[in-house]
């Protein structure tokens, strides 16, 4: 066999191995899902939220906190609702659609990833514990995660297209998706729509990274003093959330600016990095999710010179969305579900940077 033939055979075997591994992960994931469904889940899949959604769908509850119970009620009225069937659809979305959409975000004309990187990105979604856990029942989180990735993909198309009409059309769709995001979780929708606006301010001046850090904290203080953050901070509570096994007890309302910044940063590190190890679930979340995110974030910050325009959009989203939910939340259990879009944004940036760095594509100053 020639050297070329040997090399092609090795690549073919390697690709077949990746495919086989992906199939095995899907099979194992499916069997674990079936088993957990049969025993009632792990608490995450059959908690109060999912039971509330079921009662709203069947008409036993008429209080709608978001668009999700309204969607379920509509399915029920149309004779299409079944709790296990909806859970199965969410599982399929989390196992198939979400990995495919995430791959499309990081693998485009400007970042054609190698096959190894493509498979790693797919495995990242398939083995992400929180994404799997919230596919066990009627939680809206899988829909929200999918909407976040769709918005990332739309933003990528808006940024990369050269045609004005196409950009206007895509931007209109982006606004509609933002509104849908708002209906599912209001501050999530606000973050989506404001990110695109802020991106254009940041994109042309991102080289002034330290200046942007100063601007960020200055804006936080001004928003605090103006009272614009009161609704979020009051929701969080004077001494944080009153209930929850992994509640920090950190209140931000009524604090002076310096104390506010110090407590906000402490809360950010606890929630975003999972540095609040008080029981087995928090330890598990740290070693299965947070530790990989920390490495990715450090890699992104150190190699930010290789960020392209879409990466900058994702970074703006990460800062905007993360700031909002960290301000309003005081529980690590809730943070684990809220931070998934933040994590996905940083992972996407890391993949894009990795490609551009390997090909020595730096962003012009």
Major sheet, described briefly?
none
Determine the fraction of residues in helical runs and give it as a percent range.
over 70%
Task: Pick out the low-confidence regions.
Answer: 1-13
Strand content: under 5%
Shape estimate: globular
Which structural class should the secondary elements be placed in? mainly alpha
**What is the chain-wise order of helices and strands?**
HHHHHHHHHHHHHHHH
Total helices: the number is 16
Radius of gyration, whole Å: 21 Å
The count of β-strands is 0
Span between termini: 49 Å
- The overall average pLDDT, rounded, is 87
Give the gist of this structure.
Helix content is 74%, strand content 0%.
Structural notes for this entry:
The protein has 365 residues and is an all-alpha fold. The protein has helices at 3-38, 48-58, 67-77, 83-106, 115-126, 129-133, 141-160, 164-184, 186-203, 209-226, 230-236, 257-273, 280-302, 309-328, 332-338, 340-358. The radius of gyration is 21 Å and the shape is globular.
Task: Chart the SSEs and their pairings.
Layout: H1 3-38, H2 48-58, H3 67-77, H4 83-106, H5 115-126, H6 129-133, H7 141-160, H8 164-184, H9 186-203, H10 209-226, H11 230-236, H12 257-273, H13 280-302, H14 309-328, H15 332-338, H16 340-358
């Amino acid at each position: 066999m020639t050297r070329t033939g040997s090399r092609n055979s090795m690549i073919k075997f390697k690709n077949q191995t990746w495919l086989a591994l992906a199939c095995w992960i899907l099979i194992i994931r499916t069997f674990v899902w079936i088993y957990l469904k049969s025993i009632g889940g792990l608490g995450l899949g059959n908690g109060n939220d999912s039971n509330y959604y079921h009662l709203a769908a069947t008409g036993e509850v008429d209080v709608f906190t978001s668009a999700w119970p309204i969607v379920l009620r509509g399915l029920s009225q149309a004779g299409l609702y079944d709790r296990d069937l909806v859970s199965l659809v969410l599982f399929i979305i989390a196992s198939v659609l979400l990995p495919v959409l995430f791959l499309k975000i990081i693998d485009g004309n400007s970042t054609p990833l190698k096959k190894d990187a493509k498979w790693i990105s797919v495995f990242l979604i398939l083995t992400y514990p929180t994404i799997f856990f919230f596919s066990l029942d009627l939680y809206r989180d899988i829909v929200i995660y999918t909407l976040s990735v769709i918005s990332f993909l739309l933003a990528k198309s808006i940024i990369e297209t050269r045609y004005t009409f196409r950009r206007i059309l895509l931007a209109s769709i982006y606004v509609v998706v933002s509104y849908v995001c708002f209906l599912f979780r209001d501050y999530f929708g606000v973050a989506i729509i404001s990110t695109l606006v802020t991106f254009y301010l940041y994109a042309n001046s991102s080289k002034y990274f330290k200046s942007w850090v100063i601007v960020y904290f200055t804006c936080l203080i001004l928003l605090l003093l103006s009272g614009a953050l009161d609704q979020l901070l009051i929701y969080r509570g004077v001494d944080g959330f009153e209930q929850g096994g992994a509640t920090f007890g950190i209140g931000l309302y009524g604090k002076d600016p310096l104390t506010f910044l110090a407590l906000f940063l402490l809360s950010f590190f606890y929630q975003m990095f999972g540095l609040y190890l008080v029981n087995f679930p928090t330890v598990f979340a740290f070693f299965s999710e947070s530790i990989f995110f920390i490495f990715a974030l450090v890699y992104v910050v150190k190699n930010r010179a290789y960020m392209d325009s879409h990466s900058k959009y994702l970074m703006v989203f990460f800062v905007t969305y993360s700031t909002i939910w960290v301000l309003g939340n005081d529980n690590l259990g809730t943070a684990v579900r809220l931070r998934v879009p933040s994590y996905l944004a940083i992972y996407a940036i890391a993949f894009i940077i990795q490609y551009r760095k390997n090909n020595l594509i730096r962003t012009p100053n």
